[in-house]
Amino acid sequence: MSTRRTFIKAALAAAFVPRLSWADAGSPAFLGAAKDTNGDYALYGLDHDAQILFRAPLPARGHAAAAHPTKPEAVAFARRPGTFAVVVNCATGKITHRLDAPEGRHFMGHGLFVNDGALLVTPENNYAEKKGVLGIWDRAKGYTRVGEVATHGIGPHDVRPLSDGTLVVANGGIFTHPDIGEGRQKLNIDDMEPSLVYLSPSFALEEKHVLAPELHQNSIRHLSIGPDDQVAFAMQWEGDEMELVPLIGLHRRGEEVMLPQADMGEQYAMKGYAGSISFSGDGTEVGITSPRGGRLHRFAPDGTFLGAVLRGDICGLAPREDGYLGSDGFGALLALKENMLPLNAVPGLAWDNHLVALPALVG
Amino acid sequence: MRKLTALCLSLSCATPLAADPLHEALRRAVNDHTIPAVKTFDAEAAALADVAAQNCLPEAVKPAYHAAFDAWMGLQHLHMGPVEANGRILAIAFWPDKKGMTPRTLASYIADEDPIIEDPAEFATASIAVRGLFALEYMLYDAQFDGYEDGSYACHLVQAIAHDLGRMAHEIDQEWTMPDGFADTLLKAGDAAQPLYLSETESVQALYTMLTSSLENTKLQRIGRPIGTFERPRPTRAEARRSERSARNVMLQLEAARDLARKLAPGEMPLAEAAFAKTIALTEELDDPAFEGAEDPMGRLKIEIIGQNIDTILGHLANEVGAPLGVSAGFNASDGD
């Protein structure tokens, strides 16, 4: 919601620094949120080698961020059931806008810039009507809300773009209500129905995939897009812990969904939970992390299990070189492929669930 | 280290190097808790393999099976390094077996006389449902399987399972205790040959997580499965009920956790000690080895109370062990999205 004052401030900022780019923020390669030893939360910009370039304080615990494709702006979302998001100017570290979810809706912790950064879309829980929506916000109008569209499922969590502007939405399937159990209590575990949905650039439903009935409690939560628009999704199992279920799905439009698994012992060790998902920097593999199981699982695009890398509390995952950058709650930022190589360790800094990669941008 | 100590002595340092409580906690936990645990399991599993090789019949193998299971209960909470590598933890103890894979797979191996049991290297790749302590328990205690004769396929299967357990236990011991093995990974932390933990704090953090998650698991699984819900208790879901080890496993797990807590604790832990003692006593007083009492409301309540006391232990451990060491459960592991 843009007040007159923030609008003027934004207009002035735009007038005085018309060419602000990611270079003015130190050209970060990654963004990540973390809690420090004082219990304060902030958004951090990291360079290619995971060194901290900037720190922008956040008002509360974040979940993930959406990075503008060209302007040094990141939108940090409060975690579920947060009703606000803040736009951080990564060059100055200042919050320039605050987005408030409309009545009856809350954010899900993720968002995405579309239309070359002109619009921001935000998965939201419309809990009054028990359905998922994407909120649409206009950046040029100071991040005012200009509309919303259905995600055709409950609990939309993550949204990612394909090369042609098609949007992929992970509908987690879980219904929560902000008034019940601090807004995180799962209210429909018995009849949840997660789905993977494709929306056209004009937000029309194009494809919807649901899992087999015995996997209906496998919440589709996070997405990563690989070469040739291959969609990889990570799941979190809400059923019995000792059931052996897939935690990663691979899909190409018009094809069947693939649900590969590791060998039995490794699969159990994930504890039914994948926290983040990312293709490797070169797109030759895709990884899922389990902070509960303390491991990264690597898969080839054809579903072959490539191996596990063990690391307690690992969660954040982003593409880096021919592997990944991973983060954990102990302050470590790790280069990962077959092994892990610590790049940075900041004791006392607990990296939150996700890392966001920025495309390499110059100038 | 030796050089430093010598230097210190020569200068008659007032402060011994042992001053860092975290460093000392790590050394005690690794050297005096984890290493004895892997050694004991290795020895008992080797004895089990020997006994079975000489006489495969249930009455001959049972005492060694119990001794090996006892030793496993002293180690199974350390879900780390060699214990969890290569899926070993499940190959040693596949429980809970929700879908009844163990009896079904055992029966099909026996019916087919699957030759995989002839070669130990091959058997190491067999389904985890026919390996480990729970497969052995079915063979020794379940009426569907325990009537086999000396020299039969089932007899050789028992020998193969026992041998495979001995092999895994020995590999764990070696990989844990060899130079640059897992004990060194923990002790040397960031200076280890292949660092897994980047600092001593992280090593202690990992051990502390093993302590708390093993107790949570005992409450959730060992207690939680047989008691089910008030309307529907499930005593047949009790762990190792065929060999009447359900209560014993809870007791031994509590004792193993207590030992690890004592080694980690930088000072006294009077409240945790009292809570451990009470919970262990409650389990002994139950006098219900297979948790059959879960069937009736009073018996079920008594078992449920053991679980509640485990929560009390966890609270005291956080204050008396975790907080003074500056460690707690992982940020993402405990609260994801």
UniProtKB/TrEMBL annotation, chain A:
Pfam families documented for this protein: DUF1513 (PF07433)
Signal peptide (from-to): 1-23
Transmembrane segments: none
Keyword Signal: yes
Record keywords: Signal
SUPFAM superfamilies: Calcium-dependent phosphotriesterase
Protein name according to UniProt: DUF1513 domain-containing protein
UniProtKB/TrEMBL annotation, chain B:
Pfam family, one: Peptidase_M75
Residues of the signal peptide: 1-19
Subcellular location(s) per record: Cell envelope
The Imelysin-like domain, residue ranges: 39-304
UniProt keywords, alphabetically: Signal
GO cellular component: cell envelope
Domain of life: Bacteria
Name assigned to this protein: Imelysin-like domain-containing protein
Protein source organism: Celeribacter halophilus
